[in-house]
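Shape matters. As here.
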Amino acid sequence: MRLEARNLAAGYNGHFTIEGVDLVIEERRITALIGPNGAGKSTLLKALSRALKPMRGVVLLDGEVLHRLPGRDVARKLALVSSDNEGALDLSVEELVYRGRFPHQSLFKRDPGEDTASVEWALGAMQLQALRSRRLAQLSSGELRRAWLAMALAQRPSILLLDEPTTFLDVAHQFELLDLLADLKSHGVTVVMAMHDLWLTALYCDRVVAMEGGRVVACGPASEVLTPELISSVFGVKVEMREHPTTGANIPIPCGRAPEEPDAAPVSIEGPAIAPPNPENLPSPH
């Protein structure tokens, strides 16, 4: 399933947030969108998912203009999971995941066997079988994130678009979630996700799209895009690359802001000197 943007511009209230985006998403790869806040990552994901209509240019899904396709057809091929899914807390995990089957159902057509198989696969892919009866309101942040991902997977999409999936998760749950997403490649799923943690991006992502000011400034394999020069230019921080001890991937380690600020005069945190009291001037205890 090929997803492509050509001269894409999109935004809100008549103002561009992204502009001039030309991009091809490689199949069965994990692609990260990186860039500072306001770079346009979320807007690009919404435009790629059909949630936001382009103001100029097109998004193509297998050669067809995405925004001309029926919504139900699109939902069978790609799914978007945003970072702020907080509704439906009265549902159980299983009930939520079954909602992902709606694009495959109609008034006159429904395959209960296929629905059940897809829901079971999605629950298994996100390791939620033991939590299937639990209410969403009772889940931890990491479990809730996985539940929404399972609903998207129940659609059986070929392309999964994720907006900052590791936000607010502790390190252990970040690894857990990214391991699960990496396993999806073997099931033919293409993953595109906005990321903030560059070291996790280097560990898990095959390709990286760097954005700045609403434009794509670099795109390619993670090892070629995540360089000290690009990170300094896009994020304004200095990094040094270190080889991961087990995977061998080059990991960017932040070293401080870049470019370096000129040395400033030291600021004293001490108050004015105070002379010790003269014992002769101390009041008598009597």
